[in-house]
Amino acid sequence: MPKVIDHDQRRREIVAVAKKLIIQGGFEAATMRSIVAEAGFANGALKRYFPNKDAIVAATFQSVLAEMNEKMSAGDPVTDPREALRHDVEATLPLDRYRIDSARVLLALWEHSVANEELAALYREHLHDWRRRLAERIAAARGKGESVDAPAVAERAGEVMSVTIGANVTSLMFPDGALIPEYRAYVDRLMRDLDD
């Protein structure tokens, strides 16, 4: 009887290998040849799952973005709006090894997306959705009945996004997590000054 192959699982394995290689050596390290070697496939087998490197990059990009969204949605439902906001902000900051590694992958793919309009559109959509979610969380946490478009809410959402993206970029230079206390202090200040 022929062996049954779970093709979706194989695709996930290939994406995991691509992420691992990007973490270890940057985007250039994730060549088709290195992915095949690391995954233990025959040379032609990879093309059954992904026709080219761009397809692997797109799948890896989507995987990292999905993991970020899962992190924000993970855990027990938080009913306190302030705690829900804290949870979402902390989920996007590089506060542990996993999130520092994810930042490394996301930023490598982000750079690649500049030359790939399909990936750039995907990331712009992610940024738009993230800003909307942040604005909703901030408006609820402020408890003033403001809309998500209120100037104070929109300004705070933009600030959080800028700080988070900056922290993820900076974590590339401090992969040991040396800046984690600063990022935690930022979240504490954000929550303390939310009503200003």
TrEMBL record:
Q: Pfam families this protein is in?
A: TetR_C_6, TetR_N
Residue runs in coiled coils: none
Instruction: Identify the residues that the record assigns to the HTH tetR-type domain, covering every copy.
Output: 8-68
Q: Which UniProt keywords apply?
A: DNA-binding, Repressor, Transcription, Transcription regulation
PROSITE patterns cross-referenced by the UniProt entry: HTH_TETR_2 (PS50977)
Fetch the InterPro entries from UniProt: BetI_C, Homeodomain-like_sf, HTH-type_TetR-like_transc_reg, HTH_TetR, Tet_transcr_reg_TetR-rel_C_sf
Q: Provide the residue ranges listed under DNA-binding region in this record.
A: 31-50
Species of provenance: Streptomyces pactum
Looking at the record's lineage, which domain of life comes first? Answer: Bacteria
The protein depicted here goes by the name TetR/AcrR family transcriptional regulator
The answer to keyword Ion transport applying to this record is no
